[in-house]
Amino acid sequence: MNKINFLTAGESHGKALVGIVEGVPAGLSVDEEYINTQLSRRQKGHGRGGRMKIEKDQVEILSGVRNGKTIGSPISLMIKNLDWKNWKDIMSVGVNKSVDKVTLPRPGHADLAGVKKYDFDDIRNVIERSSARETTMRVALSCICRKLIEDLGISLCSHVTAIQNIESSFVFGKDDLANNINERADSSSVRCLDVNAESDMIDAIDSARKNGDSVGGQFEVIATGLPYGLGSYTHWDRKLHAQISGMLMSINAMKSIEFGNIDTIRNQTGSNVHDQMHSEDGKIKRITNNSGGLEGGMSNAQPLVLRMTMKPLSSLVKPLDSVDINSKEEKKAHTERSDSCAVPAASIIAENTLSFVLADAILDKFGGDSMEQLKNHYKISAKF
């Protein structure tokens, strides 16, 4: 990323989460209510744990916005952790030797590698920053970029395609509108657009919760309204799908990302995979979108379609076998309050986080220090 940069800070049970995003043009209309809407979407979903009953994430804009519009300087945000009042002693900034140390790493989590890397004797230091609580601020910051791309006519949506081995039959079509998909998905507790699969997904999550276990799954994120030529084929690090992969795979518990119609790409010959062209009203159109809106590392004015697979969460109520990092005694892993399924929430996180890459690619291609300049450049130069 070149134009847009961001940084988050804060621990899961610390006083607050803070973040800064820079590179946003002046004159973009932004308000806290817009950001809070996305934060609320992130907190929902069947399978969420007790933490979401405590927190009511509300952002406070600290700088970079005046009279409802960005002013070109870094934008800083803060979200208070309401649960911090219950963790003041454990998360004390000052020395507190009376706090018990966490010494039993959870398989699948950052615990063991983290304490080895940083020479900790207390896994709590790893737990607090490796927690997906960090994505709360990431979503908040990404909303600034989401507003930028929306002002240019680009829409984002997401929906859950699978929980465990239960798959949705919904297939995104060229006539589907992003806003309609989000409205329908948000009305489902698992964000699934297949009513029959939805019921089975809920049952799978409930079964995992009852057994002290967790389930993963898959979701799809779609961006519509993109022009030709975001990203570039000229260098490895400028390819749009590479930038998107780096950004979205940094979301907690993600194990894979794929673009386009993978079943067709994997199982069919080239003549049945590549999206053929035809002329319509003086424009080049596609019959299919198996490539998922990407060719040669660039957007091709088709909907950008990607899928991500999320592993079952590694914080289990029914702990797995572990080894004490200090005594080397074999015991059960540390237990931490957790969700039994966070796939619906993860789809919201990815949907919003995609905005960082798309906004950066747009600013890189079209430029502008203000939204007025950017919109003028976009109107003149964008090709569809």
Defining key terms:
alpha+beta, Chorismate synthase, AroC fold, globular, 384 residues, 33% helix
Determine the fraction of residues in helical runs and give it as a percent range: 25-40%
Structural class: alpha+beta
CATH class: Alpha Beta
State the distance separating the first and last CA atoms: 24 Å
Sheet-strand content, in percent, reads 15-25%
Describe this structure as you would to a colleague.
This protein is 33% helix and 21% strand. It is an alpha+beta fold. It has one domain: Chorismate synthase, AroC fold. The chain has a 5-stranded antiparallel sheet with strand order 8-7-9-16-11. It has a 4-stranded antiparallel sheet with strand order 1-2-6-3, covered by helices on one side. The chain has a 3-stranded antiparallel sheet with strand order 10-15-14. A hairpin with a 6-residue loop joins strand 1 and strand 2. The radius of gyration is 22 Å and the shape is globular.
